[in-house]
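Morning run. Coffee first, then this:
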Amino acid sequence: MKKREKNTRAIEMLYWSIAFPGFGQFLNGKLIKGIVLILLEFLINVQANLNTVIVYSFHGEINKAIQQVDYQWIMFYPCIYMFAIWDAYKDAGGGGPYAFLPFVLGAYLGTIGVIYSSELLGPIWLPITFLISGSFIGFGIKRVIIRKN
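And here it is:
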């Protein structure tokens, strides 16, 4: 497989995993890993009451979203989500040195966003904002490290 095709496939797996954690693993032929990630995503989604919280958040009813969310469960979501994306991307041949940094920082800051979400923006918008910010910071750090080496 050519380098360009390999990168395209890795990006495709990344997008599938963003849409639904575990699908990228299925498409990479990692069926057990895909099943585990889908089951974890489903379990956390149901236990955290995530779909209801998303609906309330999109309707601007942040206080209702905060009341509905189970923080003990939603704390797991950023890490499982980012792991599934990174793993599918890596298994499809994406990455290179320090490729994990955007995913690790996204998961870390996304979790911090969950912790502070009851005080600002609610349990969906603050974690998403932090997760995306962490990913961009991770890409920046990765670029700096690679340039220095």
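Residues 3-148 form one domain. Good start to the day.
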